[in-house]
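Try this one yourself first.
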């Protein structure tokens, strides 16, 4: 054997005993030469490809490209599948399975002879699940994102996935477009493989992986069908071998400085509200202190620089051609921690120092932003003691300070029954409140917080009112929507106490959300409220509801917070 104990995989392959024999002989059954895995870094390539997740269906091609790069650099690539989660088909929500996917990756990395990992991600929850699992093990790791669809187009108009579903759906509901137009627009919206082409959760988390330093610079926004997606995947394969030799691990890269960069970049790009959940959960895995108040403070004052749907006019293909993430980060570089390390081997500052903007309308210079303060805002008050999230960049300016009468839906079923009823006593000043959409209540915290506007308001041309829930909304969605109210209604949070007709005050500038009901009355309501139990009796959903933390803790499992490392399990016995 020519391999020292420097490599983790040597504990599997270098031993001359029964266990070493078995490890080696079964790889030889695949036709691998001994010198492929004796003395070379073994690189695990985690592949989340699935025909059930259209966003990720092409990742097998990227796995082949990564493998080429690994071989060229002197490593031994081994591709392995993991579960794949996507929000286009899965019910009730892909978020329900994020923690499960992270657990699977963590256990596969730890239990196998892997020295470094390349993670192939795509749809919304895939990148955060992979980052969380990899952080728990803390091996040298690179994330390769699958990329977005190319621009959508229908009848000469550019349309964006997710965002224009809402617009087209509203137009169909009020008779502005025909059923045939509504159905035919589907093909025009999704013209290629890849994830949503708006700055939804998938594009956000791919971009934030780059901002964190976990992806090679300039790669996150490459469209899925662009040949550069394959070439940069091959480069990632080469680089991961170097990282193993350098001993550069996840915890060396994802530091508080890196998380601060990601939060600021999320504000500048107008990223998904879901990012706050994922970043807090990721920080928890690495035992780094990050709270909702930290996210708010770091986001405050960061101008919106990316003119992307649902906050603006353009799509991810335009963003990439305009310079992508390096160009956006370079224009805001004075606000970033430039010395933060990245998988490239260089700092963030060096990675972005020569990046130019090629279209000043897609990526605005900091002197001419889309909005002066467009990032996420976290609201606190007696309705959300632990915080609630709003995305001002996608909201109506006129509703940033508002006081209105609540219309309360106890659950999603009641909302579906009542929302379009002619008898619903709603006007443009009303505030819709939805309960039981939180982590345990739904379960999985589904993307139902962006409640549709009642038809009687759409008929009057009203397209936005304030909506409040303990649920989430898609990153592709827009409107004045307050989400992630914590604690959630099901476990007795103040949201559960709201009654129809109660007055709610919202002041985003003051970060305030207040239910205008006296403390005495709220205490009375609390005491008269029956205790409710989560009705889950088996399987993963029971595990989820028994152990999921609240939104302000990132919805991770209580038993997954913190790192457990890459210590090799006991050797296989006979």
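Now uncover the answer:
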């Amino acid at each position: 054997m020519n391999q020292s104990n420097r490599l983790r995989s040597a504990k599997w392959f270098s031993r001359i005993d029964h266990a070493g024999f078995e490890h080696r002989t079964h790889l030889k059954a695949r036709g691998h030469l001994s010198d492929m895995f004796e003395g070379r870094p073994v690189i695990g390539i985690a592949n989340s490809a699935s025909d059930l997740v259209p966003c990720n269906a092409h990742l097998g091609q990227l796995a082949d490209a990564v493998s080429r790069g690994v071989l060229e650099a002197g490593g031994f690539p081994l591709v392995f599948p993991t579960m794949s989660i996507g929000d286009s088909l899965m019910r009730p929500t892909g978020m329900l399975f994020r923690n499960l996917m992270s657990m699977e990756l963590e256990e596969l990395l730890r239990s196998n002879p892997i020295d470094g990992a390349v993670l192939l991600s795509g749809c919304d929850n895939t990148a955060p699940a992979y980052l969380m699992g990899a952080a728990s093990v803390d091996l040298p790791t690179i994330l390769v994102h699958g990329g977005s669809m190319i621009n959508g187009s229908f009848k000469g108009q550019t349309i964006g996935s997710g965002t224009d579903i809402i617009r087209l759906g509203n137009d169909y509901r009020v008779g502005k477009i025909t059923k045939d137009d509504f159905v035919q627009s589907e093909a025009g919206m999704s013209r290629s493989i890849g994830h949503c082409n708006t700055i939804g959760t998938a594009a956000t988390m791919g971009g934030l992986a780059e901002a964190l330093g976990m992806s090679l610079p300039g790669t996150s926004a490459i469209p899925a069908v662009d040949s550069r997606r394959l070439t940069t995947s091959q480069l990632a394969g080469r680089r991961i071998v170097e990282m193993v030799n350098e001993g550069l691990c996840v915890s060396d890269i994802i530091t508080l400085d890196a998380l601060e960069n990601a939060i600021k970049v999320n504000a500048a790009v107008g990223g998904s509200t879901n990012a706050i959940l994922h970043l807090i959960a990721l920080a928890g895995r690495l035992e780094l202190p990050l709270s909702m108040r930290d996210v708010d403070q770091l986001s405050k004052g960061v101008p919106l620089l990316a003119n992307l749907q649902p906050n603006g006019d353009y799509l991810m293909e335009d963003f990439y051609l305009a310079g992508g993430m390096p160009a956006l980060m370079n224009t805001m570089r004075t606000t970033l921690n430039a010395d933060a390390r990245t998988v490239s081997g260089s700092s963030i500052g060096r990675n972005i120092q020569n990046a130019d903007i090629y279209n000043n309308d897609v990526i605005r210079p900091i002197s001419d932003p889309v909005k002066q303060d467009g990032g996420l805002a976290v609201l606190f008050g007696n309705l959300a003691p632990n915080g609630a999230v709003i995305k001002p960049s996608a909201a109506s300016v006129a509703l940033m300070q508002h006081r209105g009468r609540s219309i309360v839906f106890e659950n999603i079923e009641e909302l579906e029954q009542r929302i379009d009823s002619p008898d619903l006593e709603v006007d443009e000043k009303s505030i819709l409140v939805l309960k039981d959409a939180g982590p345990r209540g739904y379960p999985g915290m589904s993307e139902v917080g962006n409640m549709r506007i009642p038809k009687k308001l759409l008929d009057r041309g009203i397209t936005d009112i304030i909506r409040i829930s303990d649920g989430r909304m898609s990153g592709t969605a827009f409107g004045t929507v307050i989400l992630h109210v914590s604690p959630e209604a099901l476990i007795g949070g103040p949201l559960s106490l709201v009654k129809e007709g109660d007055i709610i005050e919202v002041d985003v500038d003051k970060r305030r959300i207040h239910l205008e009901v006296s403390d005495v009355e709220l205490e009375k309501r609390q005491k008269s409220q029956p205790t409710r139990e989560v009705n889950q009796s088996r399987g993963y959903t029971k595990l989820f509801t028994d152990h999921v933390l609240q939104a302000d803790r990132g919805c991770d499992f209580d038993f997954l917070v913190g790192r457990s490392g890459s210590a090799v399990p006991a050797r296989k016995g006979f």
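Discussion: Residues 152-190 form one domain. The radius of gyration is 24 Å.
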